[in-house]
Each structure stands twice: as structure tokens, then as C-alpha cells.
């Protein structure tokens, strides 16, 4: 067993509490052989919680952290407490090489600030990006980045996100040459901002990379499954992801309202319950949990604050996959290939 | 009857053809007393189509236009043909004062370019915005602007959109003091771009206007119905609106797939059909049709390219409501009030 099979888990982050985190980690542990966990947080509470998980106790160590980052902490406040909080120490374990990846369900802004300061960006990357998975009608989820790490982006950022997102899709979706698109408000060449058009031009010319640039995609095509990676600035990505989540919930609420509008439709609902359960399963964010900070010298996975046991296990599965596929090295290789073929001034 | 009861309709725009446009206009005509229509397009074709609509024939005139703007025409190409196309002539009728509003289901970019060049922006408005309605779980739709007329916006644009959107909500949603929010990637003061934060500051201080500024709203709350007006730049607005449309369709497709997955669920579906029909009705974009260009010296309504008869009638109803409530004057009044209270350098 090498060091790369250790995953650091911020056991205290997340809205659902320590018990759910530990249950999720235990579930992931049963899924993967040879993976061990550094559980970071209040040592006494973790040891007490571990009594319910014999197999996890055998495959984990506890790292004590006296403090916890709360949902209200600003990134600047969080940074000052990096060395005493479960989130900060989990990231630090990655920096020290004691863990191959860190997973946290805590405050996104704090996690990003800490990860960036501690792990620093890779050579060739100006800014890290947060990449997540969106459900689609196709066989695969679609990778979307940036989801909010960078409010504003220039063309160089967008190009780097495309290269990193493609490397991530090759790993997580197991695709040889992912289809990559830029999110835009139309598909014609002249649509969108100058940054987006410049990025499109450079990506069109990057034919030597293991990805296929397919141009622009609009918001109404996000869940069609026609592309594997959707690239955008963090503002648009956050708006798109949250609008999709909100609309799915909106339609589900309307459906519930419609089904309970008459005795007849209630009966119909009961009969077709297996069908609506299938829908619920497909739309459950826990089944797409685990957003990844790409472009850092180390792997950090953000789990949804409200993730349940299965959600936490899925976020850890994302971390394991990235570790096993050596995602950081893949991204570095692709970036080198990209930059070797495109003169720097063309993408500036 | 005054001139203000004439509505100019681009009879040739839209994907569904002249017959659907005429049927939609006829339906709107039956809904409103004292409204008359200038039907703009191929005169022979329109006169032939009118044979199926006796009452519309009696309340409309035909204005011949030899040419039509297609969906592929660029705004620059369209501008050169303003004086010969059904779209250009419909707008021109508003400029001449022969019609109080123009309605078109044609190419959005062309419509915006023509409307802007022909009608010009109101005093005090730097850029017009496209405002539309989104369905919500609440009692009212929510007004969202800008939906794509301005890819990038400064704080001054956003403030003007807020004032115009509130005036529009007072008219179309019949609210005395609409709740106005800025679309953002978080609700805390420090979130988003400098433009958004500056606009929020100015709107917070504008307590003398007939609207209530409630701060930031995130993408997942768009359809909750907690706010009446959502203000954003045209890029984010377009992404949000299309993502919401696409996600609603995605969930509906998943539902269809789930319901047809077994004989049992098919039976359940048939029994609960009235419920799913209710859902379909609520989500049908035709029931929220009619986006409005705000900030011009004249009223122009954009109907969805694929609008059906009911959709066209709804877009015309939007135009009628704006004309009757004298929306252009209302917006001008609110802008004057706003500017009288906020020094220009504070909103620059």
C-alpha cells in the first residue's frame, strides 16, 4: 500500500453532522479495497462515532482538530484558522503528502481559499476551477466548470478550464476524447463576450489534445448529454447549476401538487410510484455529489453541505478515482501539450 | 377610439407560419374590446388568410411588406432591410405613431437592432433591456431582465433595468410595490462582481420608488415566487432562462421515460393524466409568452419563435396591457424620480 491510498476527510464539515459523514466514509470504504482514511476533527467525538463502524475503525486514523469552519465564516476569517480547523488540517495533510486527496462538506468559499493558499496552483494555471457533474438524458453526466471559484474569467482562464475539464472527464467519465463546449448565449461565432470568442478560437486550433472542441452550447442544452464538458466563468456556471437544481425542484413540486389535486390522481401516483421513484433517484443531487477543485498541486473534493450517507460516499468515490487515475499529472501533461502548440501571445 | 388602440403585428415572423400568427391575433382580438391590428407582411397572403377570420378582418388593416427577416439574418443584415421587411415596417408604424406597440415572433437579434435604431432609447436610459416572465410556485410569474439584449452591463445599466423592470411588474403583474432582486451567486453583501455590488448599494438607497429592493437572489430561487423582478446582465439572464427551460424539459422527458418503463407505471400515468396535463399547462412556454423591450421610445414585444396560437395571443395581450397602462410614461416618471434622488456620480 502506498501513501496515495490515504484520503483525508473533514469529518466535522457539512450540515448533517459527524454521524452521517462517518457512515458515508464507511460506505465508501466498503466500495474500495486498499483505501484508508484520515478522519480529521474532534478526536473524542470521532472515536465515539467509530464504534458503530468496525471496518472503518480498522482502515482509518484520527487526526485531531480543535476547531470547525462554520457556514457563515468568510474566506478571510477561515484562512486565519487554517491550522486549527478540521477543514484546514485535512488540506494540510494533502500538502504534507500524508493524504492523496481531501474531502469536505463544509463552506465552499473557505475550502477554496484554504486549498488555494495551502496547495497553490499548478505550473501553467492562473486560477483553479471548481468542476461538478450535472445529470443528463445521455449515458453520462456532464462535467461543468467553473461553478463559482472565479467570478470573472479571461480567455486564458477559460482555455485552461477546458484542458483541465477534459482531463477530468477522461478520468471520471472514462472517455478517451471528451466533447468540450463553451457555455454561451447562442451558437453562432459572433455570440457572447470577447473572452469566450477568443477562447473558442484557441480551442478550435488545439486539435492535438485528447479532446474534441465542439463550439458553443446554450443553457437549454445543458442536460441533453450531447457534450461531456461545459466550460464557463464561475458566475455563469453557478447561475446555470443552481437554476437547473431549482427548476428540477420546481417541477417536482408542481408534480406533487398536481398529483395531490384529486383522489383520482393520487391513485394514479400510487400505482406509478416505481416510475416516480426512478425519477427521484435520477435527480437526487447525492447521486452526482463531489465537485473537484482542478488546477491545484493536490486533490480537493467539495461534497454538498446537505449530502447524506450515499452522497458522502459518492464524493469520496470521486476522490478515489482521481487519485487512482493520477489526475494531477494528467492535467499537467495536457497543459504542457497545449502550451507547446499554441504560442503564448495567442491565448493571452 | 384613439390611435393607442392599434397594435402592429409582424405577420410573417415566427416558425409556425402566417396561419398560426393570424389565428393568434384573432384570439387576442376576441379577448380585448377596442383593439385593432395592423397586419404587416405579404398582402395577398394575409388577405387570403383573413378569410378564415371574419371578426379579425373587420378590426384590422393590412400593411404590405415585400420582404421577411429570416432566423439566420444577422442584425447588421437586418438593419439594411428595415424599410422592406414585415418586422422593420411593424416597428416603423410605432415610430410614426400609427401603432401603439409592435409584436413579432421573428429573429430576436434583428428585432432588437431594428427597434433600437428606429425608436431610440428613452432619455436617461443607456441601453434597452429584454424583459420576460418566468413561471413560479407563487401566485405570480416573475419578471426577469435582461434576457440577452446586453451581453455585458455596468452598475448603471443594472440600476436602470431595476427601475424599468419594477415599472413593468406594476403594469403586467398589477403589483403596487414589486419586490426587486439582483441575480447573484450568493446572498452575502460581498458576493458577485463589483457592478452588481454597486448596483445593490444604489438600489438599497432608492427607498422613494414604488418598489422594494430585497437584495440578491440565487439561481435556485428563481422559480420560488419570493421576488417579482429579477435583474441581471443579458448573458446571465439568457443562461438562467434557457437553463430553466431546458431543465423543465429534461425533467418532463425523464418523467415520460419513467412512466413508460413498465405496464404498471403506464396505467398509473393514464389514471393521473389530468394531473400531468395540469403540469404541462403550467410549464408550457406559450402561457408565459411575450418578452418586452424596455427603455425604448415605443413598445415592442418579442413573441417566441415557436409560439402557437395561444402563445401569439398571449404576446399580444402583453402589448395591450402595456399600451393601456401607458408603460413608457410610467418608466420615464420612475427614472426621473430615481435620478432626482441619487446623484449621478453615485450610480456611474
How many domains of chain A? The number is 2
Q: What does the average pLDDT of chain A come to? A: 89
- The CATH topology label of the largest domain in chain A is Isopropylmalate Dehydrogenase
The biggest beta sheet of chain A is recorded as: 11 strands, mixed
The CATH class name of the largest domain in chain A reads Alpha Beta
The separation of the N and C termini of chain A measures: 43 Å
What would you say the CATH architecture of the largest domain in chain A is? 3-Layer(aba) Sandwich
How large is the radius of gyration of chain A?
21 Å
Report the total helices of chain A. Answer: 14
H/E topology pattern of chain A = EHEHHEHHEHEEHEHEEHHHEEHHH
**Class by alpha and beta content of chain A:** alpha/beta
Q: Segments of chain A where pLDDT lies below 50 for 5+ residues?
A: 343-348
CATH superfamily of the largest domain in chain A: Isopropylmalate Dehydrogenase
Oligomer: homodimer
Shape of chain A: globular
Beta-strand portion of chain A reads: 5-15%
Tell me which protein chains meet in the greatest interface and how many residues each side has.
Answer: A-B, 60 and 60 residues
Major sheet: arrangement of strands of chain A:
3-2-1-4-11-10-5-6-9-7-8
Task: Provide the helix percentage of chain A.
Answer: 40-55%
Amino acid at each position: 500500500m502506498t501513501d496515495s491510498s490515504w484520503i483525508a476527510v473533514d469529518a466535522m464539515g457539512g450540515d448533517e453532522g459527524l454521524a452521517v459523514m462517518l457512515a458515508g466514509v464507511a460506505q465508501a470504504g466498503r466500495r474500495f479495497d486498499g483505501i484508508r482514511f484520515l478522519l480529521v476533527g474532534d478526536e473524542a467525538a470521532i472515536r465515539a462515532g467509530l464504534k458503530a463502524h468496525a471496518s472503518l475503525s480498522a482502515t482509518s486514523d484520527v487526526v485531531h482538530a480543535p476547531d470547525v469552519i462554520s457556514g457563515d465564516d468568510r474566506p478571510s476569517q477561515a484562512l486565519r484558522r487554517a491550522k486549527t480547523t478540521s477543514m484546514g488540517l485535512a488540506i494540510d495533510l494533502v500538502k504534507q503528502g500524508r493524504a492523496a486527496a481531501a474531502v469536505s462538506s463544509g463552506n465552499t468559499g473557505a475550502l477554496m481559499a484554504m486549498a488555494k493558499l495551502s496547495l497553490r496552483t499548478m505550473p501553467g494555471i492562473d486560477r483553479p476551477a471548481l468542476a461538478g457533474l450535472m445529470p443528463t438524458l445521455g449515458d453520462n453526466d456532464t462535467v461543468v466548470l467553473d461553478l463559482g471559484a472565479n467570478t470573472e474569467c479571461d480567455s486564458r482562464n477559460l482555455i485552461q478550464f477546458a484542458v483541465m475539464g477534459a482531463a477530468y472527464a477522461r478520468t471520471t467519465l472514462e472517455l478517451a476524447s471528451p466533447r468540450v463546449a463553451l457555455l454561451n448565449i447562442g451558437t453562432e461565432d459572433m455570440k457572447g463576450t470577447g473572452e469566450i470568442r477568443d477562447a473558442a478560437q484557441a480551442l478550435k486550433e488545439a486539435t492535438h489534445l485528447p479532446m474534441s472542441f465542439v463550439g458553443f452550447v446554450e443553457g437549454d442544452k445543458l442536460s441533453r448529454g450531447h457534450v461531456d464538458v461545459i466550460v464557463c466563468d464561475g458566475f455563469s456556471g453557478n447561475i446555470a447549476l443552481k437554476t437547473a437544481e431549482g427548476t428540477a425542484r420546481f417541477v417536482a413540486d408542481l408534480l406533487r401538487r398536481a398529483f395531490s389535486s384529486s383522489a383520482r390522481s393520487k391513485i394514479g401516483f400510487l400505482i406509478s410510484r416505481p416510475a416516480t421513484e426512478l425519477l427521484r433517484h435520477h435527480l437526487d443531487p447525492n447521486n452526482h455529489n463531489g465537485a473537484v477543485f482542478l488546477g491545484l498541486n493536490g486533490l480537493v473534493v467539495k461534497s454538498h453541505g446537505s449530502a447524506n450517507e450515499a452522497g458522502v460516499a459518492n464524493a469520496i468515490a470521486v476522490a478515489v478515482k482521481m487519485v487512482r487515475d493520477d489526475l494531477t499529472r494528467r492535467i499537467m501533461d495536457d497543459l504542457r501539450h497545449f502550451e507547446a502548440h499554441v504560442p503564448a501571445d495567442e491565448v493571452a
